[in-house]
């Protein structure tokens, strides 16, 4: 954890603002704007980029990924620029929790992978690049998005430590734990061999 230099009341405001930004359900917005229907009634019902991809509209899926990654990245980067690393870590975690448990959707949100990647890239870019490389490598081998996400996120605290970002190990560990939690059903399907694959 970084040294806490920002007043607690200000960290609280940062966290609230970042949570509200993270709560914006870009997947739902993109799906509606592009005429794909209510994303919560399509495929897995998840509001993230992977489920948007399952509508068959790759451009919508890519846009959702960029927006979900961007909200985590923007919250963390702005807080770091304005107040420092302690505020950035609070903003990163709050935006991530906003995506997972959005106030605008009754706390039923996404699984956090895109937002996690956006956070990783701005908080510790070598870790972010390594996470992306791991995701791509596992996905190309298995063609399973959830498996790629689980492997990449689970290894992120180790990567943070290895790249010299000791103050961020705890943050990455918490983010990874939440991703694992949100992928509970996927993990059960992976174990049973029924998790769907993407066609090549």
Structure overview:
69% of the residues lie in helices and 0% in strands. By secondary structure, the chain is mostly helical. The longest helix has 25 residues.
Gist of the model:
The protein has about 200 residues and is mainly α. It is built from 11 helices and no strands.
Topology summary:
Elements: H1 8-22, H2 26-33, H3 49-53, H4 58-82, H5 85-100, H6 113-123, H7 125-142, H8 145-154, H9 156-162, H10 169-182, H11 184-192
Helix pairs in contact: 1-4, 1-5, 2-4, 4-5, 4-6, 5-6, 5-10, 6-7, 7-8, 8-10, 9-10
Index terms:
single chain, 200 residues, mainly alpha
User: Radius of gyration in whole Å, from Cα?
Assistant: 16 Å
How many structural domains does the protein architecture include? 1
Estimated helix fraction: 55-70%
- Overall average pLDDT: 90
β-strand percent reads: under 5%
Helix-strand topology string: HHHHHHHHHHH
Q: Which residues form runs of ≥5 with pLDDT under 50?
A: none
Structural class, from helix and strand content? mainly alpha
How far apart are the first and last residues' alpha carbons, in Å? 41 Å
Largest sheet: none
DSSP, total strands: 0
Shape: globular
The number of helical segments is 11
């Amino acid at each position: 954890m970084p040294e806490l230099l920002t007043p607690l009341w200000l960290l609280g405001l940062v966290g609230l603002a970042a949570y509200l930004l993270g709560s914006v359900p870009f997947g739902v917005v993109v799906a509606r704007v592009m005429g794909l229907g209510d994303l919560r009634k399509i495929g897995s019902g998840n509001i993230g980029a992977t489920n948007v991809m399952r509508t068959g509209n790759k451009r919508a899926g890519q846009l959702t990924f960029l927006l979900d990654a961007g909200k985590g990245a923007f919250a963390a980067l702005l807080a770091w620029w304005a107040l420092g690393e302690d505020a950035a870590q609070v903003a990163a975690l709050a935006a991530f929790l906003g995506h997972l448990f959005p106030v605008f959707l009754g706390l039923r949100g996404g699984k956090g992978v895109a937002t996690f990647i956006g956070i990783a890239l701005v908080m510790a870019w070598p870790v972010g690049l390594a996470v992306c490389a791991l995701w791509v490598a596992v996905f190309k081998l298995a063609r399973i998005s959830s498996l790629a996400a689980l492997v990449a996120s689970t290894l992120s605290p180790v990567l943070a430590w290895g790249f010299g970002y000791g103050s961020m190990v705890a943050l990455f560990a918490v983010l990874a734990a939440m991703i694992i939690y949100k992928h509970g059903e996927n993990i059960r399907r992976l174990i049973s061999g029924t998790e769907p694959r993407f066609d090549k």
